[in-house]
Amino acid sequence: MNDVLLEASGIRVGYGGSEVIRKLSLSAAQNEVLTLMGLNGMGKTTLMKAMIGLLPIREGSLRLAGKDLSQAPPFERVRLGLAYVPQGRMIFPTLTVEENIEAGLRKGERGIPAEIYKFFPVLREMRRRRGGNLSGGQQQQLAIARALASRPKVLLLDEPTEGIQPSIIKELAVQLKQIRDEQGLTIVVSEQVLSFALAVADRVIVMARGAIVHESARSALDESSLGKLLAI
Predict the structure, then answer these.
(1) pLDDT for the residue 188
(2) Does an H or E element contain 8, and which?
(3) What is the pLDDT of residue 154?
(4) What residues contact residue 119 under an 8 Å CB cut-off, 6+ apart?
(5) Rounded distance, CA 22 to CA 12, Å?
(6) Can you tell me the distance from the alpha carbon of 153 to that of 57, in angstroms, rounded to the nearest whole number?
(7) Is residue 135 predicted with pLDDT exceeding 60?
(8) Which residue among 85, 94, 130, 168 has the highest number of C-beta atoms inside a 10 angstrom radius?
(9) What is the mean pLDDT of residues 67-89?
(10) What domains does the chain contain, in order, with CATH numbers?
(11) Strand, helix or coil at 210?
(12) 166-183 and 136-148 are packed helices; what angle lies between their axes, rounded to 10 degrees?
């Protein structure tokens, strides 16, 4: 693949004596949305946590723009261009929307980048409101905005549609593609909602038992064929 930005090569990841990710390799190009799909327990969240450094990579390598991050701590990965929005969003409920976003700024930076409120205008309207008082969809937008404040090269999103109503899911798909197009951002998203995955993806990877069992361009898949793959 041309212009590979993020590359995992033969990585193994697990918990204690249990191995969850087995010799997995994948890559994501600059300005690409890569969607990871699979049933619960197939390793998607484990892979995300390993990429951001919350779980150690036991073997193999993870490279961002050619730099090996395999043993780097999470803060160093963020500094070099990775950003992570975990499953469940994990915003700061007692801080305002504005304070939540400011928490994602790089050290020494002041002021929220204007494009963040352009992508998520509702957050500008609610910037003085506490994060815990937002709806689930608004909290997801806030979590993504906080991640974007670090000016990443790659955005990792784990189950972003969880607990969000269908109308907001459609809006989020549009927003992510706008962010990709305008920021030249690479997005790796773990997802189970088929319609959302197909709406945002340039390429789809299906995982089962910690391994990749299918990979194809979005243009080669429809909802029916992908559903069959996920049922395997």
Answers:
(1) 97
(2) strand 4-15
(3) 98
(4) 145, 148, 175, 178, 179
(5) 5
(6) 21
(7) yes
(8) 85
(9) 94
(10) 4-230 (3.40.50.300)
(11) coil
(12) 10
